[in-house]
Amino acid sequence: MAPHTDSRDRLLVAAIDLIRTKGYEGTRVDDVCAAAGVSKGSFFHHFKSKEALARAAAQRFAELAGALFAGAAFHREATPRARLIGYIDFRIQMIAGELAAFTCLHGMLSQETFATHPGLAEASGTHIRAHAATLVPDIRAARAEHAPHADWSAESLALHIQAVIQGSFVLAKSQHDPEVAAESLRHLRRYLVHLFGGDT
């Protein structure tokens, strides 16, 4: 990897870690440079501003998350319902360690910057909606099999699932307790089991 590309990657990794830990406003360019081990001149070679860095970090986070979820074992479940429940189980398993290690960069940026940097918030929201869209085919198929007369759409349920997940992270942070998030997702799991019927 070329040195200039390597320094850009280090800046993105540092930005993801720092913003998830300290928030967007609490993360300074100097902090990112120090964590990445690069000069401020190198920073401005790659990014014209902190917001530009955050946008690129959000894109990188989406790519990393996309690869993680695409390779997860729940995709090998035999039925759409089982894959959807497996997705929730996978999200619960991810809740471990420090809060910043499992919470969502996109959710943080959407919450923190919606008034001050609306373009950044919208970009982050776009990533959340794109992730929600990956659940739609299985939700649609499970709905057709288990709840064909339901008055809700697969798209709306996919977004509701993300709303619960993001909200669980907020509650966990407010109480400094990852278990709060895990319990919220267990409630979500029970709701989906009830919605689509069958064994837990």
How would you describe this protein?
Pfam families: TetR_C_13 (PF16925), TetR_N (PF00440). Keywords: DNA-binding, Transcription, Transcription regulation. This is TetR/AcrR family transcriptional regulator. GO terms for molecular function: DNA binding. By secondary structure, the chain is mostly helical. It has 2 domains: 57 residues, Orthogonal Bundle (Arc Repressor Mutant, subunit A); 125 residues, Tetracycline Repressor, domain 2, CATH 1.10.357.10. The protein is 76% helix and 0% strand. Helix 7 runs antiparallel to helix 8, helix 8 crosses helix 10 and helix 9 packs across helix 10. 32% of the residues are buried.
Number of extended strands:
0
CATH fold title of the largest domain: Tetracycline Repressor, domain 2
| Coarse shape | elongated
Low-confidence stretches: none
Helix fraction by DSSP (H/I, runs of at least 4):
over 70%
Please give the domain count.
2
Sketch the major β-sheet. Answer: none
Give the termini distance in whole angstroms: 47 Å
What keyword list fits this structure?
transcription, 11 helices, 200 residues, mainly alpha, 2 domains, Arc Repressor Mutant, subunit A, single chain
SSE inventory with pairings:
Elements (H helix, E strand, L loop, with lengths): L2 H20 L6 H8 L3 H7 L3 H21 L9 H15 L4 H4 L2 H9 L4 H16 L2 H11 L7 H22 L2 H19 L4
